[in-house]
């Protein structure tokens, strides 16, 4: 969380070995959440409806799983969890859509907040992580660098496509 950067200002300098107390547990619990959500989607949704999220969850499970098992890159995973702040508003959007409340002030307000948090917590965070990975490539072993680069190469386009869909759906109907 942003508060963690205030309490641990050195964290962005060493996302490989350093992490605040409780961060490893938070990342481990997050792996459990993504596993559970993956299984729930697999069992209860049609594949054509959920393949993108299943793919997203697979990438997160692998990357976070490596951090949990190795007790390294926990700081990097912690930064990646900032992306999930936006998920609150994405989920609220889905609930409002299911409740057929699209033409309400609540939906419009959520659309604006969703877009703002999307830019700040998804796009900016992924850009920052990509930059950090590139700038620290000499300090990251080749296998971990390959996994991180692949993760960023998958997540960034997926998030740009979703951003475009949200813009088109909620602002350019």
UniProtKB/TrEMBL annotation:
Q: How does it sit in the membrane?
A: Multi-pass membrane protein
State which residue ranges cross the membrane: 51-70, 76-92, 112-131, 143-167
User: Which residue numbers delimit the TLC domain?
Assistant: 1-173
- Entry's InterPro entries? TLC-dom (IPR006634), TLCD (IPR050846)
Q: Where in the cell is it found?
A: Membrane
GO-annotated cellular components = plasma membrane
Q: What is its main location?
A: membrane
UniProt keyword annotations, A-Z = Membrane, Transmembrane, Transmembrane helix
Q: Which Pfam families match?
A: TRAM_LAG1_CLN8
Instruction: Give me any GO biological process, just one.
Output: plasma membrane organization
**What protein name is recorded for this chain?**
TLCD2 protein
Q: Which organism is it from?
A: Piaya cayana (Common squirrel cuckoo)
Gene symbol of the encoding locus: Tlcd2
């Amino acid at each position: 969380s942003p508060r963690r950067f205030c309490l641990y200002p050195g964290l962005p300098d060493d996302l490989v070995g350093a992490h605040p107390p409780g961060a490893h547990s938070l990342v481990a619990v997050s792996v459990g959440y993504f596993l559970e959500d993956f299984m729930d989607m697999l069992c209860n949704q049609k594949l054509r409806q959920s393949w993108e999220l299943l793919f997203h969850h697979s990438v997160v499970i692998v990357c976070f799983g490596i951090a949990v098992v190795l007790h390294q890159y926990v700081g990097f995973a912690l930064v990646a969890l900032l992306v999930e702040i936006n998920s609150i508003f994405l989920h609220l959007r889905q609930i409002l859509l299911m409740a057929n409340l699209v033409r309400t002030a609540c939906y419009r307000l959520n659309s604006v907040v969703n877009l703002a948090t999307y830019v700040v917590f998804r796009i900016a965070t992924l850009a920052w992580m990509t930059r950090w990975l590139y700038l620290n490539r000499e300090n990251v072993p080749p296998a971990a660098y390959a996994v991180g680069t692949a993760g960023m190469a998958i997540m960034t386009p997926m998030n740009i496509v979703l951003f475009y869909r949200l813009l088109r759906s909620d602002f350019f109907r």
